[in-house]
Amino acid sequence: MDIMTPRRIRMTLKTLRALTIIGLLLLVLFSTFILSVVFYAKSQGPPSLSVPQSTIIYASDGSIIGELHNGQRRYWVGLEDVSEHIVHATVSIEDQSFFQHNGFDYKRIAGAALADLKAMAKVQGASTITQQYARNLFLDHGKTWQRKAKEALYTIRLEQNYSKEQILEGYLNTIYYGHGVYGIEAAANYYFGKNAKQLSLAEAALLVGIPKGPNLYSPFINPEKAKERQALILRTMREQGYITEAELESALSTKLTYSTKEKQALNGIAPYYQDAMIESVARLLKIDEEAIHTQGLRIYTTLDLEMQRKAEQLVTETIDEESEIQAGFVAIEPATGYVKALIGGRDYEQSPYNRATQAERQPGSTIKPLLYYSAISNGFTPSTVMKSEPTTFTYDNGKASYKPNNYNGYYANDFITLLQAIALSDNIYAVKTHMFLGMEKLVETSEQFGFHTKMKQLPSSALGTSPVKLIDLVNAYGMLGNGGKKIEPTFVTKIEDADGKVIYKSNKEREQLLNKEAAFVTTHMMTGMFDSRLNDYTSVTGQSVASILTRDYAGKSGTTSADSWMVGYTPQLVAGVWTGYDKGKSINLVQERSYAKKLWANFMEQALEGQSVKAFRPPDGVVGVYINPASGKLATKDCPVKRFTYYIAGTEPTEYCKDHKPEQKTSPDKAEKSDDKQDSGFFDKLFKWWD
Predict the structure, then answer these.
(1) CA-to-CA distance for 164 and 101, rounded, in angstroms?
(2) The 3-state secondary structure of 67-98, one letter per residue
(3) Are 517 and 619 within 8 A, CB to CB?
């Protein structure tokens, strides 16, 4: 047994005394610091509840297209003029101990810190209503220690100089509810056409859920998520004793009726574009939308006002006013990815849902250029022939089958070239190509082109049955048009803070991502949809608008039972149009099926009017020759149809067409070379696969 000596006892006592003294000193210092902060905050007096600075949005020509100023859709009302449901819902979900704490909820802070520590990431917040109010009024939304310290000081000043009721009133009048709406009075008027005092329990719970993520929980953008959050808030209110079980069930089953008269875009200019742009800025700066609206930013966008006006006017003039069909439109500069014009629907006031950036629809045959780019990159040429005839394809080790049809049941019942297949939009050729390459190739290609939706490995994917977003498809065509350089849809060129400091600038350098030779060959083949020389068993798909066009365009159309698409480009501009019904209705009228092509053709002509006619410039590594489109062989003077066509160097045809003059003499050297090419391993494999 260890018996402590007197000396050890004395040493232990000295250590304890020293630790006690140090602890007391630290406690005194900490207490002094806390009291000093509190007295300092008190001495500063009530903080000014000034309105945050405006954020201004500029078009590409420098004109102002939007001003997110602080007085817009913001009405200050006293707490007595706010429904008690709003007060109870807000406290329940945001800060349950609001009326008890002094500005900081230490229990929640400790719990959040523990949760973050366990997850090794920021997974839980602990800001009180007072802290959020301080942040909204005085601070940016960064996450630096300096900002946190300032927030704490402002929080103390608010708590020291204002009552809880005043703080809650201020918070409810400054919080952001999406769509440019600030404050509970403006939100009640915008979403439900009533004032804040009149809000029901169900309406209040839905509104209180929006500020956590206006772009996620707005019922106009994501009604499912909005209802989920409303239900969470109602159940939390039940747990907190603010409502009864009967009130909970009644509110959950209440069908909400939203107002439409106040659904207006900021300043009415390009509202769908502005929504997409603000979402883009939030990602770029890693801040929430509320901060964008209140931090005095200067946002310089890519919007071309003249192009936007032309697009909007054409949508109005082209689509029958009585039709319920919807439209999406995107125009992008291929060299930069700059979004020059965007329309997400026919009427923003009736529906702010953005069909250009949010909707995922089946692209139909507009997916084929990506498939054929992949084919050109893997040994195909514009002269590659396959038979167009009714065909049943088996897959999944023979367990499944797929039988596609050509439009109107037309087939060549003969061999056609790839050049013809893309111009005539032959479905059999497309699926044969898809199956020959391997279904994974198109999936890989779509990812290479930057699609944000996952393509399925199915035979039907060659015909566009895997949904995509219009803006992704237009961007992909832009990459073909710029020679294979990587671009992304870009809405903003520069952002300045309130002091004029540049905090973001777009990068104009573009990485060479695609095979530039294959991209050019694909582009040149895509000009064929407007070329009547490629008519065969059916007409080229762009025949109905070819007479409108005054310059060379590359493009592709596509249709499904519920969707009509047209995407095309020149070196200067790429534009895409989708028309269709939002849910559960097919496009049955011939007139409605023609909208997309007409809109696209007229827009491109008007948008490029007065600009120089630019041709697609062939890069080094491609060769152009005249061919007979039907055979894919070199054209002779006796061929009734000749078309100048590009090939990756070394893959161009060397055999002359003999179909129109049996006695046609060809160079022995060239004929021999042609035979060698036809006997190459790639074509052996292709012919064997057909059999």
Answers:
(1) 10
(2) EECCCCCECCCCHHHCCHHHHHHHHHHHCCCC
(3) yes
Q: What does the pLDDT look like over 404-460, one tens digit per residue?
A: 999 989 999 999 999 999 999 999 999 999 999 999 999 999 999 999 999 999 999
For residue 7 the two structure tokens come to: 């000396």
Best CA proximity match to 611, nearest among 200, 307, 159: 307
Task: Give the three-class secondary structure for 156.
Answer: helix
**Which secondary structure element, helix H or strand E, spans residue 690, and what is its range?**
helix 681-690
Angle at 648 between CA 335 and CA 630, to 5 degrees: 110
Q: Which residue, 593, 591, 538, 539, is CA-closest to 561? A: 593
Look at the pTM and tell me if it is higher than 0.85: no
d(CA 358, CA 276): 9
- CA–CA dist 197, 195 (Å, integer): 6
* CATH class of residue range 72-267: mainly alpha
Q: Give me the residue spans of the domains in the chain.
A: 72-267, 339-607, 622-690
Q: Which two tokens stand for residue 348?
A: 């923003």
Q: Find out if CATH 3.40.710.10 is the number for domain 339-607.
A: yes
Confidence at residue 433, expressed as pLDDT on a 0 to 100 scale: 98
C-alpha distances (whole Å) from 516 to each of 480, 484, 564, 624, 683 are 8, 5, 29, 15, 23
Q: What is the mean pLDDT of the chain?
A: 86
The values of phi and psi at residue 566, to 5°, are -150, 125
Integer Cα distance of 67 and 266 in angstroms: 7
Cα distance between residue 259 and residue 257, in whole Å: 7
Q: How many CA atoms lie within 13 A of 71 on its CB side?
A: 0
Q: How far apart are CA 220 and CA 227, in angstroms?
A: 11
- Residue 445: CB atoms within 10 A of its CB come to 22
Per-position DSSP letters for 545-578, written without gaps between them: HHTT--S--EEEEEE-SSEEEEEEE-SS-EEEEE
Confidence band of 35 (pLDDT split at 50, 70, 90): low
Could you tell me the CA-to-CA distances from 690 to 191, 355, 383, 401, 536 in Å, in that order? 60, 40, 16, 16, 22
Catalytic residue annotation: 94, 365
Token pair in block for residue 647? 């090939």
Query: What is the residue-wise DSSP string for 299-347?
Result: EEE---HHHHHHHHHHHHHHS-TT---EEEEEEE-TTT-BEEEEE--S-
* 485-506 per-position pLDDT tens digit: 999 999 999 999 877 899 999 9
DSSP 511: -
563 near 578, Cβ under 8 Å?
yes
CB 402 within 8 A of CB 669: no
Whole-number Å distance between alpha carbons of 538 and 536: 5
Return the pLDDT at 660.
78
- Collect all residues with Cβ–Cβ distance below 8 Å to 58 and sequence separation of at least 6: 64, 65, 298, 299, 300, 301
